[in-house]
Every structure is written in structure tokens, then in C-alpha cells.
From TrEMBL:
Location within or outside the cell: Cell membrane
Main location: membrane
One Pfam family per UniProt: BPD_transp_1_N
Protein name as catalogued: ABC transporter permease
GO cellular component: plasma membrane
Membrane-spanning intervals of the chain: 95-119, 140-159, 179-200, 238-260, 288-310
Amino acid sequence: MTAFLAKRLAVGLITLLAASVIVFSVLEILPGDPARIMLGMNASPDALEALRIEMGLDRPILARYLDWLAGMATGDFGRSYTYSSPVLDLVWERLAVSLPLAVFALSLSTLIAIPVGVFSASRRGSAADTITMGAAQVGVAIPNFWFALLLVYVFSVGLRLLPAGGFPGWGESWAQHWQAFKALILPAVALALPQAAILARVTRSAMVEVLGEDYIRTARAKGLPRTQVLWRHALRNAMIPVLTIMGLQLAFLLAGTIIIENVFYLPGLGRLIFQAISQRDLIVVEGVVMLLVASVILINFAVDICYAIVDPRLRAGR
């Protein structure tokens, strides 16, 4: 298991280094002057020159890349020109919204998808299987922003149960925590149901394959209860592709929620990226993209650890 995880960690570090080269090269391959792109075509020559010096554009490419890499290694991702604040501070501020939202949405997705996938696989070919997978297909096809607007119309405008948008902050009291949690319920549901539809279909496919294996027939022949065969033997062996999709979904939910965060006016990480791109704040875009790449690598490494926990063959080094 140690060799397996060490190999995965080495691959992750190489991937992070390669991503840093690609992300840094974006400024170099952009047509025109990066400083002019950030300040606009009407910027004065003095402002352009000051920003070039601030960004280090007057220095050799290799020296700038190594300084940028060393800065990231020490937690310095640069300073936003638009917000006049360190990029890392902006990210931590927005993660207070995006991270709970992502975990909330993924938890809802998992709680819905795995029981539905197991139920559908255990009744393969039946009317219940057709109905559940049909509903999952509809969930995959429906755009999450349209579903989000529908949720706002029903639960905010119609029933007046939940806020339609905005985020009050977590605060310090339990009442403030509850108001912040309520602000995330509709966005989390809007994100969770389409992801649950995908995860349910993957769970069903993996379970159908596992239920045809010899050891499942042996377990049934030994007289084990149906629920024990499904949940203890079949599901555990079907978890590898399910864990893979869950890891990808968590990575997507951290920054792929630009539309949902704009629908609900949430000051999250996805909205920060959208604002940085629209305001041409390339320093923020570079720093946030690198942090997202690192988060994806860490999530994949955590998924690899889950692989080793679920599959004893990986712990034995096979």
C-alpha cells in the first residue's frame, strides 16, 4: 500500500509541476501586452510601465517562472490588481462559501445516488429499474441553472421557505449559522440532483457487473440474506468507479459552480473566477487555477487512499 500511495503522490507532484508550466505560459502566449490586457486599451503609458514592473514583465521568462513557483511554494500567489488584496486571502474568503456548498451538495448526491443505484441494479430489467434510470436520465439532461430557477420560484417566491439568493456570512451565533445554512440549501439541491443522476447510473452499472460474478453467486448459494449480499459484498466491490466519480464531482463542485453561484448571488470561488476573468485580473486567474489544480490532485490522492481501503489487493501491493 505504501508503494502504491507513493507512486500516486509522485504522479500528483509531476502533474502539479506540469500544470504550473502551462498556467504560467498563458500570459506568455496571449497576444499583445498582458499589462494592457489587464488595464485596458486606454491606460496611460506610466500605468502600463508600473504594472509591467509589478508583474515582473521586464525580467527574463525563466526567472519570473522560478520566482512565481517559489512564491507559491511559500504561500505567496501574488496580489490582485483589482481587489488590492493577496490572492490567497481572496481564495480563503470565498472558500468559506464554496467548500461547505460543495460538501453539502456531494453529501446529498451520495445519499440519493447510491441507494437508487443499488435498488435499480438489484431489480435489473424490471419496471422499477426502468423508471429509476429514466428519472436519472432526465436529471442528467436538465440544466442545473434551470432547475435552480425552478427551486427559487417554488420555495422562495411561492412558499417563502428559503432565501432566493445572497449569503449573510457564517457569523458567530447559532442563529447566524442557521441563516447561512439556509442560504446554501437551494444551491446545494440544484447542484446535487444532476450529480446524483450521474452517480446513480454509474453505481447501477458497477453493481450490475459485480452481481454477475461467481463470488456473488457463491454468497447467495450459502444462504446469505439478500441485503447482506448487496450491501456488504456487491457494493464494496463496485465502489472503485463510484469513488472515482465522487472525486471528480467534488473537484467540479469546488469551482464548476459559476452559473449556480451567479444565480443565487453567492460570493464563492466560481464567482471569483468569473469576476477575475471579466475584469482581466490575470494574477487572480493564475493563482486560483493553480490552487484548483492542487485541490484536484489532493482529492484524487484521497480517492486513491479510499481505493486501498476498499480493495484489499491494493493494500497487498497487487
